[in-house]
Every structure is written in structure tokens, then in C-alpha cells.
Design a protein that fits this description.
- The chain is mainly alpha-helical and 77 residues long.
- Helix content is 61%, strand content 0%.
- The protein is built from four helices and no strands.
- It is elongated.
- 10% of the residues are buried.
Length: 77
């Protein structure tokens, strides 16, 4: 989170490609945290655009994630 503060202050895209939150999207300073800060909730199409993936692939990832979440909820009930 330190780097996003620095990038905001200097108004430059983050150069740290090793960061787990780095995305190749300069409009949002190459940072997932900045994307969420600026835009809040986004559509799957907006996410696909930022991640450089197809809309269908983002849908698949969402379905897999929801399946895992539901499975974990069942374990705790």
C-alpha cells in the first residue's frame, strides 16, 4: 500500500511489476488498489478490460470463486 500512496502523490503509474497488486493499466496507476479506490464496484467487462482477459474468462473465474466460497460456508454451518 505504500507504493500506491507514493504514485498518487507523484501522479505516476507504478513501475513495480513484482507487486502482487500491479496491473498493466496506466489510467489507474497500474495498481489494483487504485482501481478499487477510484471506481469501487465494477462490471465483469470492466475487470476483463483491466486484466487483459476475455469477459468469458472473467465469468469462469467468478463462478469458480463463488463455488469455493459456497463450499467453505457449508463447512462452517
Amino acid at each position: 500500500m505504500k507504493c500506491v500512496k507514493l504514485c498518487r502523490e507523484k501522479d505516476v503509474a507504478c513501475p513495480n511489476k513484482d507487486c502482487r497488486y500491479w496491473i498493466d493499466y496506466k489510467d489507474d496507476l497500474n495498481c489494483t488498489h487504485e482501481t478499487i479506490y477510484k471506481h469501487g464496484s465494477m462490471t465483469l467487462r470492466e475487470i476483463a478490460k483491466r486484466e487483459g482477459l476475455s469477459f468469458v474468462r472473467i465469468q469462469q473465474i467468478e463462478k469458480q470463486a463463488l463455488k469455493k466460497i459456497k463450499k467453505r460456508i457449508k463447512l462452517f454451518n
